[in-house]
Amino acid sequence: MKTINRKLLAVSLTLVMTAPLAVACSKGTTEDNKTERVLKIATSYGYDEEYLRQQFTEIYEFANPNVKIEIIPTMDDMVRYKAPAPGEKMPDPLEKLKEVMQGDNPPDVVMMGYEQLPDVIDSNLLTQLDPLVTKDKFDTTGIVPAVIDGIKNVGGGKLYALAPNFSSSALIYNKKIFSDAGVDFPKDDMTWDEVFDLAKRVYKEDGDKTINGFNFYTQSQMDLFYGMQMYTAPLQLKMFDDNAEKMTVDTDQWEKVWSKMAELQKQHVFPEVVDPQKQMNRQYDQENPFAYDDFMSGRLAMGIINYGQIQQLVNANKNAANYKGFTPIDWDVVTVPSHPEAKGVGGSIYMNGIMAINAKAQNPEDAWNFIKFVNGDDWAKLKSHSSYQLVSRSKYLKPKDGEDFHMEAFYKVIPAPIDPNTKIYQNNPNIYQVQDLGRQQFLNVLNGKITAREGLKEWQTQGDTMLKQIKDNPNGPITPPAPAGAAG
């Protein structure tokens, strides 16, 4: 993230001095304006204090010189800087946050990740914001669906938090590939099957170059097993039960997904499974500086791209003459496809700066003023110049530097439901070995060695064995079970 420099701070100070922000004091009296107060902000993020101040609090403190902000991190440095040893249980930043929120000197504002929000809400630790929004007539209508609907969904329709920034993904497509194939461009609100059908129609073998229709990434080194989680997440397919004691993958729904992906692979919808050596050669291709990226190399018609990647493509197009082997790409984006049973749900959406009021806040007035300020109109206007994150207020979401593309595609979607097993992943690092068993079986399916159901049955069996090891020895090393002969 870019550090807020002096010039930017001067601009922000001008804004807060001239705009009617209603944040200078909590009760509106001159006496309160002069009273020095402390606003405590606890965070379970892994960011250091300097970043949090630059990103969220410095401008507020300029506007409110009588308010001193104290930041209370709850993520242990052991988690931030050290990779866990095999079987090592790491401190849980969320549990520490909840403990601090209920302590003798509780924070006023709490900041957390989206996946942590349901737990804190269910623990009745947050103040509902809807009454405050109504009382102060705080405008939430301009907040994009990706943020406001996503937060309300985890609160059972109620608003317990706000987030000033987010990142999101969209479906990017190469216009020339579609035009050359005589196929209509993709459009918003397509289903996954409609996208796959388009992908089949634009597949082309052109000498040594193959053009595939779609991938869940644009970069060729990424893995289809992990990429298709964007497809499965809205379907709420679970790998194991809520207690992580029994696998739940030997099912008709899982078989349908794996069989579909394997069939699409055969139909050249996805790029081929590249062997490691060929992949290494691509990354160091002297004739193509973007060989690692299928879309930028013209090998992919459509892919899922994060907003933060757009700037690289824009810069490459502008400086194409300086890149040997690169041809400028005429492109645009549409919304990430969704399932008919979960229309408009999907994409990789990450909210940055989710903030809420602690139910035990000692200074709830300043806490609400801070949240209103950082999630308000002027803050969004100031922060909208970032090339890597999006502000939550749609009126300031416009392409930069004279570019012209369908920006709305990045914020017209709603996040997929949070995986209920997220906490299990966080507290049991060995669980990822169980997931990798599935990846190995999935590769066997893609390579035609076994059927989808055979792969899932083997994953179920091996996973059950490993889950039992984890339960019996949660902090100890785990021995992967021997694969069955069917795995080949």
Automatic annotation (TrEMBL):
Predominant subcellular localization, coarse grouping: other
Which keywords does this Swiss-Prot/TrEMBL entry list? Signal, Transport
Native source organism of the sequence: Paenibacillus hexagrammi
The compartments listed are: Cell envelope
Asked if the record carries the keyword Signal, the reply is: yes
InterPro entries xrefs: Bact_solute-bd_prot1, SBP
Where are the compositionally biased (Pro residues) regions?
Answer: 477-488
- What is the top-level taxon of the source organism? Bacteria
Write the protein's name. Extracellular solute-binding protein
- Where does the signal sequence lie? 1-24
Under the heading Pfam families, the entry gives: SBP_bac_1
